[in-house]
Design brief:
This protein has one domain (2-219): TIM Barrel (Alpha-Beta Barrel), CATH 3.20.20. The longest helix has 18 residues, at 8-25. The radius of gyration is 17 Å and the shape is globular. It has an eight-stranded parallel beta sheet. Helix content is 37%, strand content 17%. The protein is an alpha/beta fold. The structure holds pyridoxal-5'-phosphate. Pyridoxal-5'-phosphate (PLP) binds next to β8 and α9. Pyridoxal-5'-phosphate binds next to β8 and α9.
Length: 225
């Protein structure tokens, strides 16, 4: 009999299994795919629980929300925090202090602001591959200039690209976006690709994801913030 609710340990095992199978299908090493646990909206305690189970990389969307959790996160060995939500340049100082990786750099101005903090920071460029007005991200034509700006910032280390396709229940609908992101990364000689979430991580891994960002499949449905 299936228990009514799975524990975090069981859900983590299931996600790791999905990653392993998708990696195997695409002849990739699962160790090359980072599982980023997306903890937005959940309390600091869930980060602690996930850390106890061996997770080290955590994704958060909102500066203010994460700032509220930080005092409760002391002593989590090796934890790395990634900002995966849109960042306004007036909040860049705070962001550079709180996070190890900013996955959502989408303008030269923001890159220069993050660089001012003079703390080494890993960054990814958020690329917008759909026409949706509500989404942030740089368009593919803006990338050469943006990459140049980031490379001119001595405190920033450029890892690669991240993207978020238009929402669809059908994971296959994400495939063309993931494929396009990989092509862009190849064109620009960048090694890392942050793409794929709870519902489409297999497709993302088949298309070359090096980081999948998983919330719901680990922690359950989020209440509206
Ligand atoms: C919330 C969020 C996720 C996690 O989505 P799930 O469907 O809950 O796995 C991944 N990436 C970004 C940018 C998000 O905002």
């Amino acid at each position: 009999m299936q228990p009514a609710t799975l524990t975090l340990r069981e859900k983590l095992a299931a996600v790791r299994e999905r990653i392993a199978r998708a990696a195997e299908r695409s002849r990739r090493n699962p160790a090359d795919i980072l599982l980023l646990a997306v903890t937005k909206v959940f309390p600091a305690d869930i980060i602690r629980q996930a850390h106890d189970l061996g997770l080290r990389d955590f994704g958060e969307n909102y500066i203010q929300e994460f700032e509220g959790k930080v005092p409760q996160l002391g002593g989590l060995d090796g934890a790395r925090y990634h900002l995966i939500g849109h960042l306004q340049s007036n909040k860049s100082k705070k962001a550079a202090e709180l996070f190890h990786v900013i996955q959502t750099v989408d303008s030269s101005k923001l890159a220069r602001r993050l660089n001012e903090n003079a703390r080494p920071l890993d960054v990814m460029l958020e690329v917008k591959l759909s026409g949706e007005d509500a989404k942030s991200g740089a368009s593919p034509v803006e990338l050469p200039e943006l990459i140049g700006s980031v490379r001119a910032c001595p405190h920033l280390r450029l890892l690669g690209f991240m993207t978020m396709p238009p929402w669809s229940e059908d994971a296959e609908a994400s495939r063309p976006y993931f494929r396009r992101l990989r092509e862009l990364a190849e064109t620009h000689g960048l090694p890392q690709l942050s793409m794929g979430m709870s519902h489409d991580l297999e497709v993302a891994i088949e298309e070359g994801a090096t980081c999948v960002r998983v919330g719901t499949a680990l922690f359950g449905k989020r209440k509206k913030a």
